[in-house]
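Run folding on both entries below.
>entry_1
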Amino acid sequence: MSSDPAAGFRHLGDTPVHQGHVWHVSVAEYEAPDGSTFRRDIVRSPGAVAVVPVVFDVEGNPSVVVVRQYRPPYDRAIIEIPAGMRDIDGEDTAEVARRELAEEAGLAAGRIEHLTDIYPSPGMTDSVTTLYLATGCTPVPHDRHGPEEEYMELLHLPLGEAVDMTLRGEINDAKSVIGLLLAQRRLDELDHPAAAGEG
């Protein structure tokens, strides 16, 4: 018997249910190792990119720029790191990160470093979110899209405080929690050489 739980499963095909602008909903049919078949509703997604923009004060203390915006599915404002969909065919994830950082936070990154790829909700979507750390940030004009972004609030928080907010449940957006924790870990590993490019 294989030690891989996925061994013996086979994707038989998708039946489209809804074709949206970005997301598509399908009923996917699979075959189990014992030969039985089963179906799952799956949201097919091009994926997303999120970026943790870190800036340093003159003493080298890191702070992070986050956004607080209204999210219709939860009907409330949520604190998040800048992020966006991979809605331009063929666009590299690092370029998506740079674009979203400028659009939402009004920042251009001097350096972009890949942190990890996460599966935000593997029980219902094939979406992958790629997380980046941005340093050496300088101000650029905003280019916000849609009413949620138009009315969003920009927050500058000490990185340690932002991480504490995740531990207290005040920041609970999944990509933001993971991104902030990994960014702090990465900067601790480097002893803040990520400040290179900060001047």
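>entry_2
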Amino acid sequence: TKYGIKTMEDLKDGLVGAGNGTTGMDVAEDLKDDYGYSTQAGEIAVMTEAVKAGAMQAIITEKCVADSYINSDPASYQMIADDLTVEEIKGITALDNNALLDKVNEAIASIMADEANYNQLILDWFG
């Protein structure tokens, strides 16, 4: 690879970014002592340019965001780990509010049915 980063172990003494206040930053902080890197919070779009330039060695973000950058520029980006955490996101409503529950489930199904649209929403809102 361009900068010799192929595994998490290759991040030793490097800089790893993640979105401020995100699960990615929580994971980056949790793993930094294991792999010997420093962390920096920021905007994913800015940090991807830093990775491309070699100023930052990696970013920890949602898989769909990472996949989007890799697919759009495979000469610049690669996946080095896709199993750092399992994140389950839940939504709740008042008990027996079936009308709202049905509408929310319809909206989720509609969003999930169009993978390209779903990935764009993730990028727009998270990154």
